[in-house]
Design brief:
This protein has about 400 residues and is an alpha+beta fold. It contains eight helices and six strands; from the N terminus they run H-E-E-E-E-H-H-H-H-H-E-E-H-H. Its main location: membrane.
Length: about 400
């Protein structure tokens, strides 16, 4: 749609430029005159002239006219400038749209990577719970645990199986949505590794983002739209000024000089028109155009404040996301140590199966939050690239698959 808007702006520019060139047109006219036109002619000296009815009631004229506007109060120049500004605005809007599409694709891509990791974690969790359920069944038969612990282990296994199915369904749905977004039928499994990307994210220097000067495409578009509105208002104001038009005309006219035959008539004209009274229409049109220009200026100012505030907030979220990844990484490492200690303690009989299951659930939760934080970090980074128009250079890592 934005490409069509750019084409419309280019056509508006061609229309505005056309007023600077002469206009050639063909015409054909017919008129009926009653009474018939005549001439007064003196036949004999000293006698009253005779009224000779020599004309025709029906008059025809066919020809061509070349017309050029010499002066129109500057309306043409304002229209041309307005069209140029709108063309630039459409170009920036198209750029903003492309950046938005790129962001949507990256967000969907990161979602798929996260869903793949969730499916992998769910599968590993199911394998652990299967082993725990089998151990619980043997322990119950040996009489070393109560039936309650056996039932919990079996329930945890069933929940883990459901989680695997749900993770697989979410991944398939995400892949379909990604295919729809890219308008393709067969979508290969995207490569990329959030685990590796998390290591890069933890060492990312957010100061690099603050050093970049943002290029807000939407703000640039609104700024050009504001200038176009101002020029359009001036063009409307010029409509109340005089207009001077010149031209030449050649026509075949009947009757020609009182004769019945057609004859060629050449003429040149210079026309001055000045609007005197139109019931306030011109003034109302100009006032309306001024209000449009004022609204465009207010929108530009408001958008500038909003974008700058969102931009600063986005950088803060990226910095917060980096710290969150560091914290989540520590949480995963501690959860792994806790699980290893719980496995040893359970093997020695110092804790029951429930405590071991709690340690496994803690590890799973820590890994999920760690990967989700990584995906959110890169999603915010993609959002920063969309708004700023700059490259962070951090997405190249996703072009590599797992080693």
């Amino acid at each position: 749609m934005q490409e069509n808007e750019l084409k419309k702006a280019e056509l508006d520019g061609a229309i505005a430029d056309s007023f600077s060139y002469p206009e050639l047109s063909l015409f054909s006219s017919y008129s009926h005159i009653d009474p018939r036109p005549g001439v007064r002619k003196e036949i004999l000296p000293g006698m009253a002239p005779l009224e000779l009815n020599m004309g025709r009631n029906d008059m025809f004229s066919h020809g061509a006219q070349l017309r050029y506007i010499l002066y129109e109060g500057g309306r043409r120049s304002h229209l041309q400038e307005a069209s140029k500004q709108m063309k630039e605005a459409s170009r920036w809007l198209l750029l903003d749209r492309r950046r938005t599409v790129q962001f949507d694709v990256r967000r969907a891509y990161l979602t798929i990577l996260l869903l793949k990791e969730m499916e992998h974690l769910a599968t590993d969790n199911l394998d652990r719970h299967r082993r725990r359920s089998a151990d619980a069944d043997r322990a119950f038969k040996a009489g070393t645990i109560a039936r309650l612990e056996l039932l919990r282990a079996q329930a945890e296994e069933e929940d883990a199986r459901i989680a695997v199915d749900e993770a697989a369904d979410r991944k398939r749905t995400g892949l379909r949505q990604f295919a729809i977004l890219l308008n393709v039928k067969d979508l290969p499994d995207p490569i990329g590794d959030l685990q590796r990307a998390s290591e890069q994210a933890m060492h990312f220097d957010v100061a690099l983002l603050r050093a970049e000067e943002p290029e807000f495409a939407r703000l640039m578009a609104v700024s050009f739209q504001r200038r176009a509105s101002e020029e359009a208002a001036e063009a409307k104001k010029a409509e109340s000024l005089p207009t001077v038009v010149t031209g030449v005309k050649a026509a075949q006219v009947n009757p020609y000089l009182g004769d019945k035959r057609y004859g060629t008539e050449y003429s040149a004209f210079l026309q001055l028109s000045y609007p005197i009274f139109d019931s306030g229409r011109s003034e109302a049109v100009y006032e309306r155009a001024k209000i449009d220009a004022q609204n465009a200026a207010l929108q530009a100012d408001e958008l500038e404040r909003t974008l700058k505030a969102q931009y600063d907030l986005l950088i803060e979220r990226i910095e917060s996301g980096r710290r969150t990844i560091l914290s989540r990484k520590v949480g995963v490492e501690r959860a792994k140590l806790a699980l290893e200690a719980a496995q040893v303690a359970h093997k020695n009989g110092s804790i029951d199966l429930s405590r071991l299951l709690d340690a496994e659930v803690l590890l799973l939760k820590s890994e999920v939050e760690f990967l989700r934080s990584t995906a959110e970090f890169y999603e915010n980074l993609a959002d920063w690239e969309r708004w700023s128009g700059r490259s962070s250079g951090q997405f190249e890592i996703f072009n590599k698959s797992k080693p």
